[in-house]
Amino acid sequence: xxxSDKERVLGIIKQSASHAYLxxxxxDQPVVRSISPIVEDDLTLWVTxxxxxxxxxxxxxxxxxxxxxxxxxxxEKSAAVYGRAQIVTDLETKKRIWGLASFDLSQYIPxxxxxxxxxxxxxxxxxxxxxxxxxxxxxxxxxxxx
Length: 146
Prior knowledge:
By secondary structure, the protein is an alpha+beta fold. It has a single domain (5-133), classed as Electron Transport, Fmn-binding Protein, Chain A (Pnp Oxidase, Chain A, Roll). The chain contains 3 helices and 8 strands, in the order αββββαββαββ. Strands 1, 2, 3, 4, 5, 6, 7 and 8 form an 8-stranded antiparallel beta sheet that branches. A hairpin with a 6-residue loop joins strand 7 and strand 8 (139-141). The mean pLDDT is 94.
């Protein structure tokens, strides 16, 4: 059985999610930082952060973001995820995502998921440009978000 494009993209993203890159905009200047997002099977991406982080302020002004996932060591398999970030304030969602983190968030936010210092970003992809090998070329996957 051949994997669907969604399954192949999800595999690339999950394989490299522990060290991905997130780009936001600060005015007309792109800002890129390494990040470890939480990835759900529907391709929703979650970023836990400090509520007062620069990326949160940047997203308040311009919600357009891009993630880059590249499977190491060669980067031959990669996915660039384009979407819009939303700042999540719903406590139940924040608690659920806190529990999904693959690392101990309390190291960074000692007050736990109810802390006002805990920020959560939700990114639903609009378009994913991906490749599963150098020879295959870039493909485009557009999730159905509705």
